[in-house]
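Step 1: inspect the first sequence and its tokens.
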Amino acid sequence: MLERITLEQALDLMLEKARPLETVTVDLLDAVGMAAGEEVRAAWDLPSFDRSPLDGYALRAADTAPAGGGKTVELEMVERIHAGYPARRAVGPGTAIALDTGAPIPPGADCVIRLEETVVTENGVRIRRRLASGENVIRAGEDIKAGETAVRTGQRIDGAVVGLLAGLGLDRVKVFRKPRVAVFATGNEFADRGGPPAFGRIHLSNPYALAGCVRELGCQARLFASVPDDRARIAAGFGEAMACCEVVLSSGGTSMGDRDVVGDALSAVGAEPVFRQVRLKPGSQVVLAQKDGRFVVNLSGNRSAAWI
């Protein structure tokens, strides 16, 4: 068993010995906080067509060449289109098509001028500046191109990833199942809730803090009842927790006192120690043990040390 290792070494050891869990397929929103169980590639460009990012007019940049320096160009408005509907006709020389945000760029147009930069006339729209080809046009595939990787295996799924997958037409995604983490404390000093503790006693808090951190990390946390400082009872607690969870977090019993019997309890259930103590203050008293692919992480009973 290794002793007095660095925090980086401890993390590397944990990651080296960890193995992926099985995958499950869940609804997109249920996947938030989970890790992608497979690579997802875009089946088509997103967006799948050139579109406008704003309300305005689609036109040909070449038609605006004379504009600027006090000169204007007037174009005939030949159609108005909305998001979700393609133009029925093309933009030709001297014409423009009014369009809403998200509407497809009509054939023949190569730029869009925002509505606020124009003046509506009796016959069309007046342009006061020169535009460049491609100005205010969102190109097909600008978000992601067909065949590109949208999500990597193991990537943590957040709201942005969910939005991307939804944009690709998916409503479910394969993810690795959330690890099940058992959390409990050992000790004889815990008081019942509902009132102030008696002198020398404390209310149980470490498991709640640890379980909260576990859930913040996207894992399932299960709180177990605290266990007195008794080797047989602690061993039974470890056995029960390891039977239903991949990881067990225990708090207390990491020192060398007469009542610090967690090490003996781990041996009793056949858990093999990997390392003991990390060069970290507070928080140096840490034990990692494993059995049949399941891990036990025993942390200090000191609240600040356990939380760190």
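Step 2: inspect the second sequence and its tokens, then contrast the two.
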Amino acid sequence: MTTQPSAVVFPDGSIPTRNLDEFFAEHRSAGQCFTIDPARRTTLVGSQGTRLTIAPNSFLDPSGWPVRGQVNLILREVFSRPDMVLSGLTNTSEDRILESAGQLSLEAQCEGEGLSLAIPIAIDLPLQAGLDNPLASQLFSGGVSQTSSFGSGLRFDWKSAKAKNIQLKTLGEKKYLHFPINQLNWWNCTSFFHRRRSRIMMSLRWSANETPVEDVAAFLVFKDFNAVVRMYPSRHGFSSWNIPKDVVARVILLGFNGKQFLMGKSAWAPTSSQPILVEMESTTKAAIQSVMPEYCL
């Protein structure tokens, strides 16, 4: 049984945003909804081509019993750098840069209760153009960084799942990265940035033309490979370390002062230890969403 999404749920842009974490959470919560019979073998196909093959009786209720009623699934797919920035899902593992082949999340509920997996779900992730070495891909799960600067708080990060069984698979004329997941969580099929480069620390200073700003996030976006790094707050702005030297990148800044969004960007340029200066200007949530593909690609 192959199932297409019965509905696509996106956050209501009119919902008030209190801080940037809520802004990122709104984009992470966007997903495709499926309803399935857990007793049947089912294949789901996401809007960006991700395929999920679910065996019968794959789900357990909170008490550990097999689920009998209909299961509601929410699939989220993040493949591009614009979506990574908007979702706050950067591509690092304890400050080591990852080149992403695609990120996804799966959530399952029955009658409002969260479910777990009794049997792994098989994932076929569509192979993205330009990926350097697909066979070097590893599986990472979503977690919290153990490396952070003072005042930066908890930060989403990727942890190695230590899976050795990612395979290249062909279905029809399309190629996929094939692997199982054993938990309902965020997953990233990715590889460490492997090109031989010197490593540097980058620093950023920003201004907002005297506009008060309560909340600021800075992202380092790479032009020639699929990765985004969230910079750490520092005394005078933001910084990032262990960055490869002389790869083309730009900084994108997002700000929020309780009522007004702000945004700024640097020019595309080779990475260096020279401080970057960026000025933010007032904007809207809709404008940020609209221009992000242009700014990141």
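Step 3: confirm your contrast with the notes below.
The radius of gyration is 20 Å. The domain at 2-192 is CATH 2.60.220 (Chondroitinase Ac; Chain A, domain 3).
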